[in-house]
Amino acid sequence: MVSRRGTGLKGRAEVPGDKSVSHRALILGALAVGETRVTGLLEGQDVLDTAAAMRAFGAQVERTGEGAWSIHGVGTGGFAEPEDVIDCGNSGTGVRLIMGAAATSPITATFTGDASLRSRPMGRVTDPLALFGAAAVGREGGRLPLTLIGARDPQPVRYTVPVPSAQVKSAVLLAGLGAPGQTQVIEREATRDHTERMLAGFGAEITVEEGPEGRVITLTGQPELRPQSIAVPRDPSSAAFPVCAALIAEGSDVLVPGIGLNPTRAGLYETLREMGADLTYENPRDEGGEPVADLRARFSGAMRGIEVPPERAASMIDEYPVLSVVAACAEGPTVMRGVGELRVKESDRIDAMAQGLRACGVEVEEGEDWWIVHGLGAGGVPGGARVESRLDHRIAMAFLVLGLASQRAVTVDDGQPIATSFPIFEPLMTGLGAAIARSNG
Ligand code: S3P
After folding, report:
1. Residue 93 Cβ < 6 Å to ligand 1
2. What is the spatial distance between Cα 136 and Cα 113, in angstroms, rounded to a whole number?
């Protein structure tokens, strides 16, 4: 795909449902007894793979309309043994949460995924699942394909998550549903809390306390989860692309309505405002227990690089690729520290962005868990390169956003991965007037 400068983006951008919330709605729906109805579900490939997995474990999952889904769950501990390998495609969230949910059922399941997912670490999940009594056999380094043998006699667990990861936290909590007694998860840094919120919504007994060790989450196992009606908020991580595009493309004024602004997810927007972005929250409200607002972004020609507070990293972990694009169009350096997790996402996101930005004429410095992008100011990025998306949707979209503000077009070698999280990215962006197209070579 190729993107180039135009006359700016204008209009309303209705981005799809939140990916994190969508996965959790399907998985918890599958573990409840009775019918859960979901509206606004993200129908991206990652979530569709999770829906197929829930069917393979015995839940009835049906699409009843656009974004509307019905799930008849099997009850906690009720997962049936899948007949075949579970293919989670590109989705780390899918495979890690599902492994957690399966770990305390007396079944055996084998998981795999695409080349990106097969290269990602799974020990971070299978280690705590072993404490419940589950066993896993995978490839070197615990990588997929991997077979998980669920605990026959699960034990509750107290576990401190060693890396800031909502996926690991959620896997442990979902496993805790199948164990008797109380499972405790402790996280030193707060990560997205959709699992905790949704478990409470489904009627589980769950408490969260701030202690000297961090956030202590206590879940009482073997509850009967009550089916829910869930309206999925629109995804702040998808909204980031039209918002950032509007900030850097001259002449832009874009409204992105109904975006979930849960504080564990909204770090990017705070950072952009600190950089001097013309970004406002309109009509703030509460929808389904999550704070929501309409985001309005206008071209901001005088943004400055900043030092992003490392303690904010978890609340914007998926947004660093597109932030680095905005940073390239701001004046001076943007310093991003405490972001080692970026190296184990769908791709090594520091390396993928650094190489592509350098090819577009932007200076980038990097270390194991930090990077610095030296901004060239509005209109200052030369562009003109062909970059690799590396099976990573956010890398593909970030570079297509860069092309909208750089002097020469930016080409992305493979736009296919975008469908995992934002299947309508191309029509949505072109509908705003962005010059994004399929390239012939
Ligand atoms: C997610 C958690 C994050 C994030 C991913 C979605 C989730 O991963 O990068 O896109 O839904 O729990 P980690 O928890 O591994 O940081």
Report:
1. yes
2. 16
